[in-house]
Amino acid sequence: MRLYLVRHGKAEEGRNDDLRRLSARGRDDIRRLGEWCRRKGIDPAEIWHSPKVRARETATLLAGLIDCPGGAVEREGLLPEDDPGSVAELLDSAEGDLCIVSHLPFVGLLAGHLARDSMHLEFSTSSMWCALRAADGAWTTEWFVSPKSLEE
Q1: pTM, full prediction
Q2: Please, which of 42, 58, 61, 150 could form a disulfide with 8 given CB 3.0 to 4.6 Å?
């Protein structure tokens, strides 16, 4: 199983954090990421996202650009301060590749919880970490991509 962990795209400023939408730059960065994923053949069964608007918009954009039969699905436990251990337990029994769109610090904490080799990743907005789960349940980083690396 592969896990694709994404930090949402750059969001507009706003008073209500839950309702902040993607900015034009955020949408552009996610489109570039989605097009790159399509070229690489990345096709998760589903894209889970937090209930915050910017995460939903990110997941929906990605799902529209790649082959994702289950589409974007809102899930509990993916908010910035949620416990990554709960999601890690769900991943233990998950089958098929999965993408999760969330926020800081959650994305970094989940990556660190799953794979020790991910401890120093800097999840800028619109970045994606790919990890592979081995037969013994251990997770290892396969690659990490950010908007900056997609420009190179």
Answers
A1: 0.96
A2: 58
